[in-house]
Design goal:
about 110 residues; alpha+beta; five-stranded mixed sheet
Amino acid sequence: MVPAEPLRVELVWSPAAGDVRHRWLQLPMGTNLEQALRGCADFADQLPQLATLRIGIWGRIKPLDTLLRERDRIEVYRPLTVDPKEARRLRYRAAGERIVSRHRPLAGKTSR
């Protein structure tokens, strides 16, 4: 019997603002999210609060018992430190003008 190939998954997390960490993990088939995070030495400082963190695969929140598949991207989300609307208001006050335009530029079009 041929042994099963290991899963290769990507782990991405941001311990602090502006600091994004990325690791590729080789895991046995049948590994779930919790087992993958507990097995990653680089993520050991986050383990005590594992149950309180929001964890997703490809941008969708998933429970810790979710089985992983080949090439999954595990994302660990930090809690928000400031409300996004309030941050936008503060940037507006600092810049004194609109941050976002009402219209998106046309993709692939050059200005004439």
